[in-house]
Amino acid sequence: MARDVKPTRSELIKLKKQIELAFLGHRLLKMKRDGLIIEFLKVLKEARDIRRRIIQDYVDADEKIGVAQALEGSIAVQSVAYAISQTASVEVTAKNIMGVVVPLVEHKSVVRRIDDRGYGIIGTSVSIDEATAAYERLLEDVIKAAEIETTIKRLIKEIEKTKRRVNALEFRVIPEIQGIETFIRMRLEELERESIFRLKRIKGKSKKEN
Known about the structure:
Elements: H1 9-72, H2 74-83, E1 89-97, E2 100-108, H3 126-209
């Protein structure tokens, strides 16, 4: 590549500016990468917490549905499940984490009051209400987990992309430009020495002729 570059002062000045910009870009990308890693670790902690909560809530819901089935019977429990008139609804928007667009899931109608569930309060036991509430909490956690998992995937993708750009600048682009700069400097010094040598020869010839 150096052979295609003209060894001129103006080209050397242009290369200096390119090197400065490359170092600036490298520094900014490293800052972005480090910031993304910090955000990733925060979200990772949330993911671990929500997974533990899902396990706990699942065990709790499973126990409560077991109690409800034992007290009321499977048919009664299934009837209540079919009677629930509303399904959980979610609204997906977006938020920005250091330039990475990640989903923001707002859930509605997940955890409800007893009188909003669609089945009659009279004729159902406390055990069914407790089982229903437990599964509502579990569903709320699953929705939150989906948001966090998607955020983690997008952060990982952006971190990897940023790392590749940092490495490309550090190990390929910057050394390549610096190599061209060195080539031009050496070539200019060589041309300068040749010019001085020619001037000395011309002066030497002039003295002999005089």
